[in-house]
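Lab notebook, bench 4. The sequencing result for the construct came back, and we need a structural model before the next group meeting so we can plan mutations. Quick request posted to the team channel:

Model the 3D structure of this chain.
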Amino acid sequence: MVYEIQDRVSGDILKPLLKKLCKRGEDAQLKRVLSNHYEVEIADALEKLKPKHQSEVLRMLDHERATEVVSYLEGETLVGLLKSLSEDDLKPILNRLDANDRTYLFESADAVTVQNWMLLLAEAERREAENLLSYAENSAGHLMTTGFMAIHPDWTVQDTMNYIRRHGDAAETLHTLYVVDKDSVLLDEITLRQLVMAQPSTRIESLMDHNVIKLEAGQNRDTIGLNLSLFWADARFRLRLKQRKQAPSQKGVLFGLPHDIPPCRRGCAED
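Done. Here's the predicted structure in token form:
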């Protein structure tokens, strides 16, 4: 069957098209096809390709897009693909992966592989990975994310908005910001909507109502009264934390959830 190279093709055609281009070594055409498809589409096609073709496709992507594609894969497909990559190709992907996705990846691989991959992480990412993996599987800490934005009560709204503009790219979400004291203990949470509606000179402390639930990092998920309302099952049917960020405290990492908003509505808002 002959496939015409087009800007976009349907999912059932993308897989055999990628396979054909890999077998022929048509890298320029392969890059063109990949550039016109979303990462989730590429990931879906990769799951149906042989390992050698999977790695060829991934190498045609820049590191940012390759990392995004990897985040949509799971299980044996994910681990096998990353094992097939050279250290030069693998290192930037491991360091760019979201902390939750990296934790899931490490849990899916054998101990020796994880040990080798740990050596490829930058110091900050390695500490973060070791911290997340240190919590028991069903604990709140194990399901937490570290991609949150922490702000301080004595900041003004303008100070906070400037901070978001400078550092927002590093946050997993900007819907909720976490107010912490000088010791990084969680005090409250502020929504982006509150900031937008407030005057620039308003201090963050005047927006706080201290109406926040805190969960200790070592707390077992099954013993939490809010239980699964805090969590959502993603496309790979694994539990992750959605929007509920953590801020460190003297007793461990804590999660915040407003009393006056149903947790499922907050946790499932983007599904």
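The two ends are 38 Å apart (CA to CA).
Will bring this to the meeting.
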